[in-house]
Design a protein that fits this description.
Elements (H helix, E strand, L loop, with lengths): L14 E5 L6 H12 L2 E4 H14 L7 H10 L2 E6 L2 E6 L2 E2 L7 H11 L2 H15 L4 E5 L2 H5 L5 E6 L2 H14 L6 H17 L12 E4 L5 H16 L1
Parallel strand pairs: 1-6, 1-7, 2-6, 7-8
Antiparallel strand pairs: 3-4, 4-5
Helix pairs in contact: 1-9, 2-4, 3-5, 7-8
Length: about 230
């Protein structure tokens, strides 16, 4: 795959929104796509994970919607480039690695399900989107955060493939787990995210579905770029 940035002048200032379930390749694909296009990468999921990390660290229950909503309105969350990588900070503390822990992953969906939390985070995300030239990813970016995005992509894959990918990522990071445990967790998260009351995971009617089951991450990026070229020609 070529790492050279692509000059798509007709996309300057545009918003590319990418949705999909856990493990479908959203984060890595969106990050690589943003790098290729020279865009800002907006990881909406990392914002909810950061809030979850803060809540657990400060003994705030993931079920306490009122307290979490108040924190979500005021917590200083920032994205910064560190050695050309996207990092997330809370109160100036780099929590990029911390928000990927098993405890945060287990509780993030419950934290993100609260109406007040989502309203506060979506407001922040829309503000970031005003600058344009961004690739935004999450579970409601095409339906709630950026319903008028210029290009919408919905990534999906089988639970088996998603679990295998997540397993390899965690093992590489030194986390001890099994594919079976991850499959069970992904199935639980899919059910929870798809049926939550506020901003559930769903496919926008005008999003392009990309099944990543048999694709490498590089292949996913290439495919999306190809779609963009086709749409813009």
């Amino acid at each position: 795959m070529s790492t050279q940035k692509i000059n798509l002048s007709s996309l300057k200032g545009k918003i590319i929104a990418i949705d999909g379930p856990a493990g479908s390749g959203k984060s890595t694909t969106s990050k690589m796509l943003a790098e290729r296009l020279g865009y800002t990468y907006l990881d909406t999921g990392a914002m909810y994970r950061a809030l979850t990390y803060f809540a657990l660290k400060n003994s705030i229950s993931p079920a306490d919607g009122d307290k979490l909503s108040t924190v979500a309105k005021n917590i200083p969350i920032e994205f910064k480039q560190v050695n050309e990588k996207n990092h997330i900070f809370i109160n100036g503390e780099d929590v990029t690695a911390d928000i990927r822990s098993r405890d945060v992953t287990k509780n993030a969906s419950e934290v993100a399900a609260h109406k007040g939390v989502r309203e506060a985070m979506v407001k922040r995300q829309k503000e970031i989107g005003k600058q344009g030239s961004i690739v935004a990813e999450g579970r409601d970016t095409t339906t709630v955060v950026f319903p008028h995005a210029d290009i919408k992509i919905y990534l999906t894959a089988s639970v088996k493939d998603r679990a295998q990918r997540r397993f390899l990522e965690l093992i590489k990071s030194g986390v001890s787990t099994t594919v079976e445990e991850i499959e069970a967790d992904i199935t639980r998260r899919d059910e929870f995210d798809s049926n939550r009351e506020h901003s559930p995971l769903m496919k926008s009617h005008d999003a392009i579905i990309v099944d990543t089951s048999n694709m490498t991450i590089e292949g996913q990026v290439d495919h999306i770029v190809s779609l963009m070229r086709s749409i813009l020609k």
